[in-house]
Amino acid sequence: xxxxxxxxxxxLMSAATMIAxxxxxxxxxxxxxxxxxxxxxxxxxxxxxxxxxxKGNTGFSDDDFQSWIAxxxxxxxxxxxxxxxxxxxxxxxxxxxVPDIAGTSNANVTIYQDLNLTEDLxxxxxxxxxxxxxxxxxxxNGIKQFGxxxxxxxxxxxxxxxxxxxxxxxxxxxATGYPTDKMTWDQTIELARKVTRMxxxxxxxxxxxxxxxxxxxxxxxxxxxxxxxxxxINTDGYKKVFGVMKKNYEIPGYIGPKxxxxxxxxxxxxxxxxxxxxGWINGFTPQLIDLEKTGKAFNWDVVxxxxxxxxxxxxxxxxxxxxxxxPTGKHKxxxxxxxxxxxxxxxxxxxxxxxxxxxxxxxxxxLNNYTKDLKIYDGKNLAGxxxxxxxxxPPGTIYDNKIYTILKNAQKDMAQKGTDINTVLRQAxxxxxxxxxxxxxxxx
Length: 444
Prior knowledge:
Elements: H1 6-23, E1 49-54, H2 62-76, E2 80-85, H3 89-94, E3 101-105, H4 110-114, H5 122-127, H6 137-144, E4 155-160, E5 162-167, H7 168-173, H8 185-195, E6 198-199, E7 202-203, E8 205-207, H9 212-218, H10 236-249, H11 264-270, E9 274-280, H12 281-293, E10 300-303, E11 314-317, E12 319-324, H13 332-342, H14 345-354, E13 358-359, H15 364-367, E14 389-391, H16 400-417, H17 421-440
């Protein structure tokens, strides 16, 4: 049973009246019955229709929205106008302004469930011949895990992939071999040891493994035991993850003079002193484009995101955006036609090759053309990033923000103070259980 904070419960009660109206026989502002999950007829109206699209945390810019959603829809269905709204979904619901389509990521879907904005879209996929087998299966599995009985509560739209960029110039400087595809974290750190050096007054860094949350989620670790509701941090899985990070911190020269241990994009893109940079392709690609535009590009390439030694084929956790259809929408038939269009091979291929958004379709001929029109990966090992599978993401909980903050502090203590792994995890476990009690009692 899902537990709520006092703040969440208060908001849900304020939204309950509007939701209740829709569930008692009609959608807001219409006499049309609310959806019961039944398959609708494939009829597309020719009457003018405006569909409201809720941006959520999809990161859509106005250009993105026009190029990959509103534009394609208008081209095929001239009578349909798509309008994007950007205020939080909670505000929309509280005002009775439920969107026709809501965009979100797999990391933020529970709020939509709490507001009764989801339903099983499996009948729609069957009626409109949406072939889920053509999509990245970890995205399908990720969505179904949110359904009480494995329902498909959304349709995947675009996805993110992990990768590791590396600076060839640094490896050449130290006469060291380049990274290769499908390296483990242990292999990556050993390679990092060879290029973490002081040269000409510059401290070069081999690799930054990233924050604790990312490393934990790649290992698919839960933060609480679903049976007991207690934290499960002081465990072998967490010791494995923290052990990888500690091994990197212990490389001579890695920890900075002021205790620096997180270097990230600035050290790689701006300062040019970090050799390897693991991260998200959607976050890296715009920065690579900017380097080209400003004439600051260096000699770089890309390999598969590092994996844990006991999970050699699993890279960074699955991360994607998907589209939800609130059950009370006024234009469900039109929405279904729109979603059918947006996940079609033509629409996905166009978006994949001309933007930084990667297709959800698991088709090599499409994926290997990622950003082809932008030419940023020409001559690079782009195919390498697809040699591993995104790791399954653990189910989200209402305790995540607090517990991941605790784990971030544990990571900091380990890096800066040299605190041993057993101690930081024991302390983190105790703090996490206290945080769970606070959330359950309504303490902010």
